[in-house]
Amino acid sequence: MEKVLITGVAGGQGRLVARLAAERYEVVGVDRDQLVSFGDEAPFRVYVVDLMRRKFEDVIRHERPDAVVHLAFVRHFRTGVETRHKINVAGTKLLLDYCAEYGVRQLVVLSSAYAYGALPENPSYMSEDYPLNVSRTYPEVRDLAEVDTLCSSFLWQHPEVRTAILRPVNTLGDSVHSAIGRYLKRRWIPTILGFDPMMQFIHEEDLARAILVAIERKLRGIFNVAGPGAVPLHVAIEETGGVALNVPEQALRPLARRLFGLGLYPFPPGAIDFIKYPCTVSDSRFVAATGFKPKWSLLDIFAQLKAERHRDAA
Amino acid sequence: MNRSEGAFDDALGWLLSAARLVAPRQIGALEDEIEAKLARLPTPLNEFGYDPWGFSPHAFRRPLLMLALLYRYYFRVEMRGTEHFPEGRFLLIANHAGQLPLDGAMLITGCVLEPDPPRLLRGMAEYWMPTLPFVGTTGVRIGSVVGTPKNCEDLLRRDEAVIAFPEGVRGLNKTFAKRYQLQRFGLGFLRLALATDTPILPTVIIGSEEQAPAFTSIGPLARLIGAPAFPVTPTFPLLGPLGLLPLPVKYHVEIGPPMHFTGNPNDEDAVIEGMVQQVKREMTSMIDRGLRSRSGVFTS
Questions:
Q1: What is the tens place of the pLDDT at every residue in B120-150?
Q2: Element containing residue A163 per DSSP (H, E)
Q3: Assigned domain for A156 exists
Q4: What is the sign of the dihedral through the CA atoms of A262, A267, A272 and A275?
């Protein structure tokens, strides 16, 4: 049986991928943090180890996985912008080196469609060859573009490691703690007066399936993963039971800057562009390569988030 | 669905309520007509009533009613040639004039009101349109997209109808002395037609070029407000914003039969230019015929 090593296995997305992968592969999980939710019953081995430590190389040298799924990314700012950048970029660089050195045959990296950035001139359906512009307006997450670029140059330099870079859209679900999830679960949701961009959503389980499909099909290349469709932001807010607070941009930006600086608001001001302009992508390349079809419709995704909101409120 | 479409839509609602006090029967009838037409648009929608680009017939209703009032009672548009519409994709290419892009708005309105089944013409908006609050969102809701080649190509491949003005702002902001003289055409539309194997429907609008007769444009003032032009007309800037109101000219729209082109979409400019000139010549002779056959600027 083939062996799959998953980094960031203790995260919401990591647990989902691991559970799904364990049905078909021998799974080895790696994370900086203890894997709490599985308890002793984790159907796979877990190493609690930091990607940046020598011990991680020992794990790969010892386990010799056939495939690696790289999910160990910091997607929040609680540790600070610089630490986030270091973990994501330097951690990925080390992992890529190990993959090349220890004979990994398939690598799947979870990048993000956010790397394209939310800009007024974006076409509605960006394809994979569109430039990664996110740092123009949202420099705090430039690690997204840098990780993606590191991996795509690795893809060309090391044809012996079949590398698939997945760029999924906004991910929602019970397990993941995505920025968009935290945003939509607020009771009062700040939006920009006069703006209502189209947004795509994918359910975390579908994303986990997409990652598994990438391993099974031995994908090589860069792929947008788009989910069931797009709706305006205000529709998403309404369908998930939130209340939109339309604030003029001139007030929202300084407020976000101040509150983020004080640690009272989780998103830097650059995040505002993602509720102002579209960052929507075409997944035709991924669908053509895999025939992938999401199981969760937008209605299902929104209904689950709404139910979760009610549970939290109770 | 009774979802609110935001402050801009609410403002339109109040305006229409006021209009209803004056002419309740006409507006009621027009509303019913629009409702029936919107239901027959071939554009596929998702479970929330939006198409993949953000178009929403629900959000289109009020702006369309406003435009339809202008169409029927202000510009008294007469549109001919909608029988030339192919079933699938097409590119409608038209002359552009009149300082405010009402020619585009009237074409879009006419193509919903006149043909059966109605067609939604997708406008290609300037890159800065999405940066304007309300305007950008409303533009998207009524079917426009940012005018990138990728968007246009995606729309055509999905068998949508796209409207383009190859003169661009050169046409929109031309002075009165240049009325009905087609300005230089961009080549992008023809490359896209070749790439997607799309027929081109040459279209002319007679009337729009007299709606805001500009003597000149003041360059420094245009740069100051970041606009492509600052036109001086008999009423603007003399009467302030009110002076922007176009004259009640009569619009005659003629849509010509489809023109088909084949070739390499990435060919050099000289080759593409030759095909563009064919479209332009066709439109020039349509303009000449149109001007000869009308009896006056404000009457039919």
A1: 999 999 888 899 999 999 999 999 999 999 9
A2: strand A162-168
A3: yes
A4: negative
Q: CA of A194 to nearest chain B CA: how many angstroms apart? A: 4
Which of B84, B89, B87, B94 has the alpha carbon at shortest distance from B156? Answer: B89
Position A304 in a domain: no
pLDDT, tens only, B207-245: 999 999 998 989 899 898 888 889 999 998 889 888 889
Angle between helices A142-157 and A91-101 (to 10 degrees): 10
Domain that holds residue B89: 74-211+246-293
3 state SS of A234: helix
- Pairing type for strands B252-255 and B200-206 reads antiparallel
Tell me if B52 and A238 make a contact (CB, 8 A cut-off). Answer: no
Listing DSSP states for A260-283 in one string gives HHTTSSSS-GGGGGGGTS---B--
Across the strands, what pairs with A200? A230
Q: How many Cα atoms occupy the beta-carbon half-sphere of B154 within 13 Å? A: 20
Collect all residues with Cβ–Cβ distance below 8 Å to B173 and sequence separation of at least 6.
Answer: B99, B214, B217, B228, B229, B231
Chain B residues closer than 8 Å to A246 by CB: 6-7
Residue A48 belongs to some domain of the structure: yes
Token digits for B34?
A: 């629009």
B137·A194 Cβ contact <8 A: yes
SS3 helix, strand, coil % of chain B, rounded to 5?
45, 10, 40
In a domain, B78, yes or no: yes
